[in-house]
């Protein structure tokens, strides 16, 4: 076992010491001895048990806090803060009280009056359950964060190693051994390495794409970012290579992951309502005021019916109050509230959003939170990561530079392809017939000095190992085999056949691992002839410094002179200017003591055990060539950026990559124009944070770039944008991105590269990690919003009609035409299918050519409100009118209505029906409705109560029919049915059929007819319903024509101006 496994138990006594203050101590900028002194511990002994107990009292357990969320009862109460819900609750309570009163009085309609409050209570319960379920999901990100913590650790205490100590028992000052595969259990300072190298995968915390090397050497700066703390291991990260002994510096909520936990919790506490939720709440408050005014007005114009008095000596005297009539008009007020509230709206909105999530899922956008579908539609800024989102996250070689025929020339080859698919693209101007010796050597080094592999997963090619090495293997496959090479021994199904061939003729027998000092990696290989050689790849400048020769096109080796070196460095500079990552290739045939090396038993093997010898082994090299690699942009991203520009959406790129590389990619994909001056549009994270006018910079038109950005920079940018009224979509994949994802209006996590923490904190997950998927989702979100606007307006216009109907009934003094349970049925069931079907309206072709709507845009502008008020007034006139027609007319427009034998009355009698008992000689004939005979011999005045059942049925049927025809009007906000016929949305025609079917159900099934207080209609009565209902289409067509004319006139005026 290495040094970390030794027992240093003797001499580990000493007096107890006061605990350190790790929160202010920059362990990364202090030496190992200073750290041991600060934490009052020795790496040889560890902490004493009694000292551990004292430190537990000071620092607590090494675990993340459990934030207690609101109780279920609090969540339930939270659901009743919605204005519409409160109105419904009041209506339900009052309705229940009136039903109870009617039942106590022996009222015949008791069953129907109890149905109404029970249905309203059921709506409220379902709404509360759904709301509580959604709220309960809010803390999932914090739970996912806990899952990435380590559970056990190997800790030294009292001079003894404890192999499986629970990680939550760790305290600052504990000595911990880490080895390959371990999760780091707390933030800790590396004291010494047991192996020669130590690499840690910390990308989920820092955003780095590759595992990073760790050392025990201190960092020069007290104030450095997480990536710069090379001697620190962070809780939740994973050791992928090597082993070491560390000193715990921070535990629990003081670790870096603990800080992220706090930020996620803080961000979750300040989640804003979605734009639609805000609009609906505003509408609810507006509706409350309208309902209040109308209810008061209805009472005022009907007060004469339940409160009368006489004037004596000019003063009112002898007041008479009718409690029965008072409760009757109170019921009208309740009916008014029920009519005004679109009870089915929450269910229809949820259904439409759910359908929207299915559409988005087909486009690889997986929506986790339903309201985010609508929020996407008003996104004004997309803050996107670069790696893997704008780019493929698959490194590829784009340029190959080889030696020429003489020392004064180089050859350059352009390479196509953006994925790990060996057949994706080709090398331009490649000598297919006979590959020269220099190109063969480059191919050999790229294939053999390489630890990566590529496999096929479905339709994708996936790399294992370093992305740059995988790209080199793809290059080797594109280069092909040297002419005349035997391939009979190769597996024809092998994807990397050329790499396999090179590894067959050059067997690797030793590896000199990469390190940051020499910036290269090499392998010793034995050829089929039995001779050994060294193949090297690494940073071009470093290889040139250690090279004394170059290989020319024909394979000849000549001295490397200054002019040739200058030519190579010039090519290197050109590629670096294009933001390419460059790698050089070199080799060596004269290996001195390694010429006969054949494995670990060889005498020279001891030289390989010390990495400090690698630089001397990799000397006097023969330089062969270089390649330029990059993480290429996704092919579809340029078009998606253009779509964003046309749609008025600003794209900001926030990346941890270096500035030059990010700027080159941004120019290529169209975030910046080719010749655009970006000196005021491209910043590093630290540069931007130091500016005093950050908001002014963010308000610039066009794209912006933030490179070398840390998580806190992302959060600050999102916060500033939201303060400025922007609707922000933010992408992220790491644990460190979770707070910004939570803070953004739309948090978008990566499905492939993303951590579970990022996914749980997000509103949407990209199944393909592709930026163009975000843009497609925004277009879908806009379409869904437009459709939602259509059915919200449809439902509200229907409710305006119902309010108008009840108001006219009260104002004219005629019997109540529609009872609350019938209005509930219409609002919930009959209106529901057409409203939902409007969510299937096809997407506008130019939807991504319009600017994003403002989040505070009203659902209903003045013209739309006027239009629907006219429609609503007609609905009121039609429903009340058909009620009056049945009582006062034997026929209407040639339609005979006298077939049932009912008695006709005058309008005056109908409007003064409350005085019926004082009419002399008033008699009513029996009439039939369906199979029921209605007789009024005992009390003729019941003709205006139980006898109104046929007139009520006609009113309800007219209301249903008008609302079905009105749904056709809602297909387009201002387009005629001639230009947008009903069959563009066949779902709407199906929904209308379903709604009519449901209406027939309650009409012709006796039990349901009794519950709803209606009776069957005959053929002539249905003709009357259609004659009264169909004009709603003509009225709205005229109003749409006026609206279109005004728009054309205003647009023409703007052009003239």
UniProtKB/TrEMBL annotation:
Gene3D superfamilies, A to Z: Calcium-transporting ATPase, cytoplasmic domain N (3.40.1110.10), Calcium-transporting ATPase, cytoplasmic transduction domain A (2.70.150.10), Calcium-transporting ATPase, transmembrane domain (1.20.1110.10), HAD superfamily/HAD-like (3.40.50.1000)
GO MF, one example: metal ion binding
EC number: 7.2.2.10
InterPro entries listed in its UniProt record: ATPase_P-typ_cation-transptr_C (IPR006068), ATPase_P-typ_cation-transptr_N (IPR004014), ATPase_P-typ_cyto_dom_N (IPR023299), ATPase_P-typ_P_site (IPR018303), ATPase_P-typ_TM_dom_sf (IPR023298), ATPase_P-typ_transduc_dom_A_sf (IPR008250), ATPase_P-type_domA (IPR059000), HAD-like_sf (IPR036412)
Top-level taxon of the source organism: Eukaryota
Compartments where found: Membrane
Catalytic activity, as annotated: Ca(2+)(in) + ATP + H2O = Ca(2+)(out) + ADP + phosphate + H(+)
Matching SMART domains: Cation_ATPase_N
Pfam families: Cation_ATPase (PF13246), Cation_ATPase_C (PF00689), Cation_ATPase_N (PF00690), E1-E2_ATPase (PF00122), Hydrolase_3 (PF08282)
Range of residues in the leader sequence: none
Enzyme class: translocase
Record-level GO cellular component terms: membrane
Transmembrane regions listed in the UniProt entry: 83-101, 113-133, 286-307, 327-355, 791-814, 865-887, 987-1007, 1019-1039
Membrane-related topology note: Multi-pass membrane protein
Keywords: ATP-binding, Calcium, Calcium transport, Ion transport, Magnesium, Membrane, Metal-binding, Nucleotide-binding, Translocase, Transmembrane, Transmembrane helix, Transport
Family that this chain belongs to: Belongs to the cation transport ATPase (P-type) (TC 3.A.3) family. Type IIA subfamily.
Descriptive protein name: P-type Ca(2+) transporter
Species the sequence originates in: Cocos nucifera
């Amino acid at each position: 076992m290495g040094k970390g496994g030794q027992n240093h138990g003797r001499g580990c006594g000493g007096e107890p010491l006061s605990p350190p203050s790790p929160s202010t101590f920059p362990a990364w900028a202090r030496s190992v001895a200073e750290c041991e002194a600060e934490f009052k511990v020795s790496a040889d002994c560890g902490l004493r048990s009694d000292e551990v107990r004292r430190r537990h009292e000071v620092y607590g357990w090494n675990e993340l806090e459990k934030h207690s969320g609101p109780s279920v009862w609090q969540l339930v109460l939270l659901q009743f803060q919605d204005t519409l819900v409160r109105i419904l609750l009041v209506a339900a309570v009052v309705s229940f009280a009136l039903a109870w009163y009617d039942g106590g009085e022996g009222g015949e309609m008791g069953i129907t009056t109890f149905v109404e409050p029970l249905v309203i209570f059921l709506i409220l319960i379902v709404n509360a359950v759904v709301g509580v379920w959604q709220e309960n999901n809010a803390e999932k990100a914090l739970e996912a964060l806990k899952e990435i913590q380590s559970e056990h650790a190997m800790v030294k205490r009292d001079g003894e190693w404890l192999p499986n100590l629970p990680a939550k028992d760790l305290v600052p000052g504990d000595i911990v051994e880490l080895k390959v595969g371990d999760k780091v259990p707390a933030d800790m300072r590396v004291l010494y390495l047991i192996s020669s190298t130590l690499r840690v995968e910390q990308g989920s915390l820092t955003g780095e794409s590759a595992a990073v090397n760790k050392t025990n050497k201190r960092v020069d700066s007290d104030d450095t970012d997480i990536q710069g703390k090379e001697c620190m291991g962070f809780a939740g990260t994973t050791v992928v290579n090597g082993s070491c002994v560390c000193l715990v510096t921070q535990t629990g909520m003081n670790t870096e992951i603990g800080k992220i936990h706090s930020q996620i919790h803080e961000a979750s506490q300040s989640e804003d309502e979605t734009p639609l939720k805000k609009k609906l709440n505003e509408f609810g408050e507006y509706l409350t005021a309208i309902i209040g005014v109308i209810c008061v007005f209805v009472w005022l114009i009907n007060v004469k019916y339940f409160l009368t008095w006489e004037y004596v000596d000019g003063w009112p005297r002898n007041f008479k109050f009718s409690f029965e009539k008072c409760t009757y008009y109170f019921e009208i007020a309740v009916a008014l509230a029920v009519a005004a509230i679109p009870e089915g709206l929450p269910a229809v909105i949820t259904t439409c959003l759910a359908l929207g999530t299915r559409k988005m899922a087909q486009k690889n956008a997986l929506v986790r939170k339903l309201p985010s579908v609508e929020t996407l539609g008003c996104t004004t800024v997309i803050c996107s990561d670069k790696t893997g989102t704008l780019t493929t996250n698959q490194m590829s070689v784009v340029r190959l530079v080889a030696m020429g025929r003489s020392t004064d020339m180089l050859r350059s080859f352009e390479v196509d392809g953006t994925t790990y698919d060996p057949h994706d693209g080709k090398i331009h101007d490649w000598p297919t017939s006979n590959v020269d010796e220099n190109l063969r050597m480059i191919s050999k080094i790229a294939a053999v000095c390489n630890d990566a592999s590529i496999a096929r997963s479905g339709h994708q090619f996936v790399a294992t190992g370093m992305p740059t090495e995988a790209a080199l293997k793809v290059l080797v496959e594109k280069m092909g085999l040297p002419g005349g090479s035997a391939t009979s021994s190769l597996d024809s199904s092998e994807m990397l056949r050329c790499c396999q061939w090179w590894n067959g003729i050059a067997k690797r027998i030793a590896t000199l691992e990469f390190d940051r000092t020499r910036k290269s990696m090499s392998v010793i290989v034995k050829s089929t002839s039995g001779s050994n050689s060294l193949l090297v790849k690494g940073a071009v400048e470093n290889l040139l410094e250690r090279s004394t020769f170059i290989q020319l096109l024909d394979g000849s080796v000549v001295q490397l002179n200054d002019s040739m070196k200058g030519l190579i460095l010039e090519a290197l500079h050109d590629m670096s200017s294009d933001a390419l990552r460059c790698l050089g290739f070199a080799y060596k045939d004269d290996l001195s003591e390694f010429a006969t090396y054949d494995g670990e038993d060889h005498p020279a093997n001891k030289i390989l055990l010390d990495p400090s010898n690698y630089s001397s082994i990799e000397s006097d090299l023969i330089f062969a060539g270089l390649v330029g690699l990059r993480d290429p942009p996704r092919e579809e991203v340029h078009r998606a950026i253009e779509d964003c520009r046309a749609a008025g959406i600003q794209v900001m790129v926030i990346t941890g990559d270096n500035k030059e590389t990010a700027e080159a990619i941004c120019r290529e994909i169209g975030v910046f124009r080719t010749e655009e001056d970006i000196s005021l549009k491209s910043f590093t994270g630290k540069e931007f944070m130091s500016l005093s006018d950050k908001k002014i910079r963010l308000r610039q038109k066009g794209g912006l770039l933030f490179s070398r950005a840390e998580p806190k920079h992302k959060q600050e940018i999102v916060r500033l944008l939201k303060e400025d009224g922007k609707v922000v979509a933010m992408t992220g994949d790491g644990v460190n991105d979770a707070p910004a994802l939570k803070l953004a209006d739309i948090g978008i996590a990566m499905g492939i590269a993303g951590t579970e923490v990022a996914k749980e904190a997000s509103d949407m997950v990209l199944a393909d990690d592709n930026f163009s998927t975000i843009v497609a989702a925004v277009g879908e979100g806009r379409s869904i919003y437009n459709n939602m606007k259509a059915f919200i307006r449809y439902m509200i216009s229907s409710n305006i009609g119902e309010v108008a109907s009840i108001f006219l009934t009260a104002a004219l003094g005629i019997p109540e035409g529609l009872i609350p349970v019938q209005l509930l049925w219409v609002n919930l069931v009959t209106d529901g299918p057409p409203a939902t079907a409007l969510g299937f309206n096809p997407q506008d072709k130019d939807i991504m050519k319009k600017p994003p709507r403002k989040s505070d845009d009203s659902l209903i502008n003045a013209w739309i409100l006027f239009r629907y008020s006219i429609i609503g007034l007609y609905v009121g006139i039609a429903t009340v009118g058909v009620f009056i027609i049945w009582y006062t007319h034997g026929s209407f427009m040639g339609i005979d209505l006298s077939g049932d034998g009912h008695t006709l009355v005058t309008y005056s009698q109908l409007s003064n029906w409350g005085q019926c008992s004082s009419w002399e000689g008033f008699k009513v004939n029996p009439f039939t409705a369906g199979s029921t005979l209605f007789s009024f011999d005992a009390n003729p005045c019941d003709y205006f109560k139980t006898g109104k059942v046929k007139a009520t049925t006609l009113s309800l049927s007219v209301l249903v029919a008008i609302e079905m025809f009105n749904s056709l009007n809602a297909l387009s906000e201002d387009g005629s049915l001639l230009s947008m016929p009903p069959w563009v949305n066949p779902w709407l025609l199906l929904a209308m059929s379903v709604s009519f079917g449901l209406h027939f159900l309650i009409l012709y099934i006796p039990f349901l007819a009794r519950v709803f207080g209606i009776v069957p209609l005959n053929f002539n009565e249905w003709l009357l319903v259609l004659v009264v209902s169909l004009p709603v289409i003509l009225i709205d067509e005229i109003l749409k024509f006026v609206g279109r004319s005004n728009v054309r006139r205003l647009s023409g005026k703007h052009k003239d101006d």
